[in-house]
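Reviewers of the previous submission asked for a worked example of the structure-prediction workflow described in the proposal, so we include one complete record here. The input consisted solely of the amino acid sequence. No template or homolog information was supplied to the procedure at any stage.
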Amino acid sequence: MLPESFIKSLAGLPGFDRQSFEQVHEIQDQVTSVRINSAKPFNVHEHAFLKNAQQIPWCTEGRYLNARPVFAADPLWHAGAYYVQEASSMFIQHILNHIVTSPTEKVVLDLCAAPGGKSTLLANYFRKGLVVANETIKSRNAILVENITKWGSDHVIVTQNDPAHFKALPQFFDLMLIDAPCSGSGLFRKDPDAIKEWSEESVKHCSTRQERIIEDSLVALKEAGYLIYATCSYSFEEDEKIMDHICSMGGMQNVPIPIPSDWQIIETESPEHKAKGYRFYPDKIKGEGFFVAVFQKISENNTGYYSADFSWNDISKKEMGVLSGHFELPLNYTFILHQQMIIAIDRLFEIQVKALLKNLYIKKIGLAIGEIKGNDLIPSHALAVSDWAVIPYESISVDLATALSYLRRSDLVIPGKKGWNVLSYMGIRLGWAKLLPNRLNNYYPNEWRLLKY
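From that input alone, the workflow returned the following structure tokens.
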């Protein structure tokens, strides 16, 4: 049951209908949605639960599922072919379609990124850009690294920093997404335990924290750059009040987003600056509670510049010879040696990557290719699940049962060419295996192995 103090706090807010709002929270059925990874194409019409899925109106790759399947029993989920994401939050793609019509060569930040849903959406939209996915909390950063690795993009950098650390990068980002930590009332349907933790005091605490996060990081946004602010809260203090706070900071202008009326997304307005924001109510749309607003930095008084004074170790000619001897390397990449691992970095963003390495704590950078031992390339798992079209060694297609056994790191016997092979299911790569004369060595990461199903 929803707290009465919570219900009263929403009275009078645009789009709030107490009766229908309470009724939808009494329904046990939950909406399940996924977003397909457009960089890893597969035949959706042959997939067990995606073939009959309904498209989400505001997201091209988003799909509503008819029922919630056991995702852990699907190899494509492990391989980053799609991401299980709440439908309302996929509205970010609709916003991007309107404010960034040319996504090439953009540098963008997801400031509060874990577990990675919005970061993977940004990775697909800014395919020829650079995406920084930041998460302050160490435990949450680990799952962010895992999800970004599985998604397969080579242009996403994962950092673990406090928002204030981004002051070292003035006018660095073309776009910043701040999906701020909040009181979580928009997720009450999918997480009833969150109801017990909600309080008016928590809302006030979150509102203060959200203001600090924005104040600490906004210097990193370029002039003419965009800020997308979002929460999964219904509270005025975390939504409309924050819109007014952003507008009062100076140099920031609200950007309205056109929305078809049949989507039933509610437009709201902040009391002081009349900024437009958008509320998602589960009794009106097929999804959970969400709030989002967009702003543009129209002027910038800070004339500072970030430091890119950082040196890395390019791989040697011999190492490059070994690497290129195993497969055709894509053009326009720099290959560096980082912690014994060869990393591929797009040359277009060398200065920006060096600035990030100079000023922030990096958890994942570029695409890990592997290690060279003698004349052999020991490939990384990241390379296997990357969205690169060409990778070294042979590929072996396996059926569902074999794929699940591989993900469990079970003992397998698979016919194929001796040596390194990448296993794939429905055309999507799962990971490496090394075929020996009398056995198969399974190189799926032990920490990610499938424990059930």
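The CA atoms of residues 9 and 235 lie 7 Å apart. We consider this example representative of the routine output the project will generate in years two and three.
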